Amino acid sequence: MSSIFGTLFRVSTFGESHCNGVGAVVDGCPPNLALSEADIQPQLDRRRPGQSQLTTERQEADQVTILSGVENGRTLGTPIGLFVPNRDQRPGDYAEMEQVPRPSHADYTYQMKYGIRASSGGGRASARETIGRVAAGAIAEKVLTERFGLQIVAWVSTVGAVDAGMIDMDAISRERVDQNSVRCPDASAVPKMMAAIQAARDARDSLGGVITCVCRNAPVGLGEPIFDKLEALLAHAMLSIPATKGFEIGSGFAGTRMRGSRHNDPYTPKAGRLGTLTNYSGGIQGGISNGEPVYFRVAFKPPATIGREQSTVDFGGRPTVLQAKGRHDPCVVPRAVPIVESMAALVLLDCVLRQEARCGRDLLPC
Q1: Alpha-carbon span 342 to 13, nearest angstrom
Q2: Which distant-in-sequence residues (6+ apart) come within 8 Å of 167 by Cβ?
Q3: 318-354: b or e for each residue (b if 16 or more CB lie within 10 Å)?
Q4: Which superfamily does 4-359 belong to?
Q5: 217-260 tens-digit pLDDT
Q6: For the chain, domain boundaries
Q7: How far apart are the first and last CA of the chain?
Q8: How many C-beta atoms surround the C-beta of residue 77 within 10 A?
Q9: Distances 212 to 25, 148, 154, 337 between C-alpha atoms, Å
Q10: pTM value?
């Protein structure tokens, strides 16, 4: 679908980069949840543009308004409408790109699919669409945190060719991640990452990177056998984020270099249940969560819109040189951290509700 995500906790996003605003409609949120804009705004603040010299210069407060579904500070169980206005619009920056599809952007494919497109900023292909996801994800995360103590923390683990060192997934926190503008908890890697992003910006170019995410205290039993395995749902969610090009869970591709005798996760008693001594499975076995931390990595390509001159052709096939204008991130990964966290929350809460419906028992007591 182009606008709806989820089975029981359903999110529909709307809006383009330079229209009047963007937002989401959330259907399936449990009733009687204490909810206000203050519960949603922190994640939007982490996602918003203009946070530092490492991000786009576009200045947006991204203040969310709850339009429906909440009364007297409590959710009603009815659809929750969320709206964020676009204030710093400059559609004129894209005039020269109206007839020239940007290399590696969605301009060409959208035009061919629909016969029309929002040429200002990329429309729905713009990362601005993710505001609705983050707002909805903040609601899902609040439910998961209150009912299970579930913690979702993502961080930048790679920028270009610069890798962070090993991070203790049991101890990592958002407070530690947010101590620097690149959102990397490895202090030794931060200056190198910042220098790499600044160098790309100075060259009117861009860089990609990798985000790692861990979800702690996820209950056992989330995910459906075969086609809706938990890792498949997470992969679907993460690869729906703009600029993503790769996903791996647990040991990922590195696990292919290990023997089974080393890769297997032996069981051991843990707090009244079976747990595992290692976690190469990434908290999922047979597509179903096993109670261990769920962790995965998401690869982001370099942003397609760059200020450097590029030889290309227009929609008519005529050779031209494109030097994109506008305000764009030289590297998206620092601002994509809360987007990854939000999409993880949407998947996990939807799985909780599906498991509750199957078992006929309250995983989420009112």
Answers
A1: 13
A2: 155, 157, 185, 186, 212
A3: eeeebebebbbbbbbbbbbbbbbbbbbbbbbbbbbbb
A4: Chorismate synthase AroC (3.60.150.10)
A5: 999 999 999 999 999 999 999 999 999 999 999 999 999 999 99
A6: 4-359
A7: 31
A8: 15
A9: 28, 22, 6, 9
A10: 0.95
